[in-house]
Each structure stands twice: as C-alpha cells, then as structure tokens.
Amino acid sequence: MMLTAPLLSKTSFFGSLVNKCRQVIKNQPSKSSKQNDRQTDNNNDLQSSNSLTATLPVIAPISISTDRPAAIANFTLRSVSSVRTLEEKLGLPPRPKKPLTPYFRYMQDQRPKILAENPKFSTVDVVRLVSKRWSDADAALKKRLQDEYKREQQAFVEIRAKYEAKMSDEQRAELKQLKQDIQDAKERRMMRKRIKELGRPKRPASAFLRFLREERTNSPQPIKQTYREWHQRCTEKWSRLSDKEKEVFLVESRKDMELYKKEIALWEEKMVRLGNIDVVRHGNLIDPPEPKTKGIKPTA
Questions:
Q1: What is the spatial distance between Cα 164 and Cα 151, in angstroms, rounded to a whole number?
Q2: pLDDT confidence band for 280 (50 / 70 / 90)
Q3: Full domain range(s) for residue 211
Q4: What CATH number does residue 90 fall under?
C-alpha cells in the first residue's frame, strides 16, 4: 500500500522513519573508508571497548567479546555523529549505543541497492520503497533479523550495565544536572514560542539600544572590524555622552515604556480570561502558582 502525502509530516509515523533513515545513513561508512574498515573489523570491538576509558581514568575498560557480530561494533559503540553527546560534553566516554532494530537492519542493507538502481532517489523515496519491500519480505528473513537483534540487544544490556557501574556518583550527578539544564532550556524555548504566538506586546528598546540603532546608520560597522569591537566602541561613545545628549534617547524610551505597560496589562487580563495563566507574570496574579522544587524529595 502506497503512503499518501500527509504521512510525510514531521509528526507522522512515516516522518519518524525518514529521520531514523537519515541516522542510519549518517552512521554508514563512506566509500573511501570501506577498504580500511575491512582491514580493521577484527579489532573494532576491542578498540571500542578501550575508547570507553580513553578520556576518563575513573571508568575502567569494558571488556567486549570478540565473537560478537560486527554490527554491534559499528552501530552501538562507534561515535561518528558530529553532534556531541551529553557524555562527551562532560568529558566522559561515549555511552554504548543500542543495536538497530530488525526493520532498520533491513533498511541498512537495502539502501545501497536501492540507490544503485535509482541514483536520483531522495531519502523519502528510499524510506518509502524500503517500507514497501519490508511489508513483502519473507518471514524467514524477518525472523533471522529479529534473532540477530535479540542477541545483540542482550549483549548491549550487559555492556551498558558495566559502563554505568564504572561511573562515579559525581559523574552521575553531573550527567543528571546536564540533562535537567537541557530540559529547562527546552521548556524556556517552548514558553517563548507560546508567548509569541499569543501575541504578547514586545518590550520597547532601552535608551542604549536606541543609541546603537542610530549608530548603525550614522557609523556602521567597518568590514575589517568585528561586531564585538564595534559594539565596544559604541559603548565607550555612549559613556562619554553628556546627560543632555542621553536625554533624547531616554525620553523616547520612557514614552514607549508607559505605552507598553498599558498594553501588557490589557494583554495579561485577556490571558487570564482565556485561562492562559502560565504566561502571566506571577506578580500580577492574586494567587500565584507554587514555585517548582527540583531535586527535593518530600519528607515522610
């Protein structure tokens, strides 16, 4: 059954398949490195294990059986992504990666064949054809891939347990805090987006920002000068201005601020009526929400 256009949306199941396919493509070795990979496949497992302790003495080497399939070495422990993981940001060895599921094993095998037959195919085209072939694939093939996945999943669980056992309490706390910081930043971005969509009035520019805006026109940034240098020069010029010269910018800022206060009060009143209390400043609420308590467990 062919997939229709709406299934290509980011929130659709098919959209998630496209994203996963891109990850598989990203993890595949390039043509120029295939020959070298063949020569080093026998040592991949041991090298991956040793890499777990290359950057942190606290975590001891994790032994990996050399009879495991090469797919585990290639896809669960090899860190080839250009995006730094949380562990790498903290200077920890990369966390073992989960093995590919049967469907994505099949995709990894079929993708080169599909592209060889259809060089102009996009990622979406490849995913669509792989999905169709997978639905028509032989039951014996699916069972074989499922059995391989189960074996590698069991090995992955053991490796992950050893990895986590070698981490210190301090490292776990740092990792947990970093995850929390990322989550908090995500929530702040979502809140800013929501406030913008609800049409919150924009806070007017300060007197100094108005001065900078004027300087961009009267004295723009030279080509050979960085923005930081230009900004520093403007800051120094602002500090040398007299109170009378600054008053021009201050008067405009105060006038716009008074108008902003009236607009934000009306907007927040509207938000309260609509039930969007979370976007209203807590100081303007009769019963402000309780503050969040992170990392504090209630006492018995």
A1: 20
A2: confident
A3: 204-284
A4: 1.10.30.10
How much is the pLDDT for 235? 95
What is the phi-psi region of residue 275: left when phi exceeds 0, alpha when psi lies from -120 to 50, beta otherwise? Answer: left
Whether the pTM exceeds 0.90: the reply is no
What are the pLDDT digits (tens) for 234-255?
999 999 999 999 999 999 999 9
Banded model confidence at residue 227, pLDDT cuts 50, 70, 90: very high
Residue with tokens 């947990």: 176
Q: How many domains does the chain have?
A: 2
204 neighbors 257 (Cβ within 8 angstroms): yes
Place of tokens 């966390």: 95
Maximum CA pair distance of the chain? 85
From the CA atom positions of the chain, what is the Rg in Å? 28
DSSP 116-157: HH-TT--HHHHHHHHHHHHHTS-HHHHHHHHHHHHHHHHHHH
Strand (E) or helix (H) holding 194: helix 169-197
Whether 154 is covered by a domain: the verdict is yes
